[in-house]
Amino acid sequence: MDPITRTYEWLRRQLSTRHTVDAVWAGFLDVLDELPAEARVAFLMSDIFDASIDEVALLLRKDAAACHALVELARAHIQAAGPRRAVE
């Protein structure tokens, strides 16, 4: 099973549990916490707050290519993390 499908299936299973929101957010925050600070900021600004790469670059005082690489690093790390533990 490819990583996107595996992650989707894991999230779908999590949504059928009682403590879904807590479990998903806790897992997401754990994975974000493992990222370097600049990659975390670039990902959150770009993918969560819908900022353009140019806006991210201005905020981080880096060029757009470096910020794009940080976002891609974060996306790959989050996708690779996949499901970590069962929700009780």
TrEMBL record:
Q: Which Gene3D superfamilies match?
A: Winged helix-like DNA-binding domain superfamily/Winged helix DNA-binding domain (1.10.10.10)
The record's keywords, sorted A to Z, are: DNA-directed RNA polymerase, Transcription
One GO CC term on file: DNA-directed RNA polymerase complex
Q: Which Pfam families match?
A: Sigma70_r4_2
Classify the source by domain of life: Bacteria
Q: Where is the RNA polymerase sigma factor 70 region 4 type domain?
A: 29-78
Q: What is this protein called?
A: DNA-directed RNA polymerase specialized sigma24 family protein
The organism encoding this protein is Luteibacter jiangsuensis
Recite the lineage of the species: Bacteria, Pseudomonadati, Pseudomonadota, Gammaproteobacteria, Lysobacterales
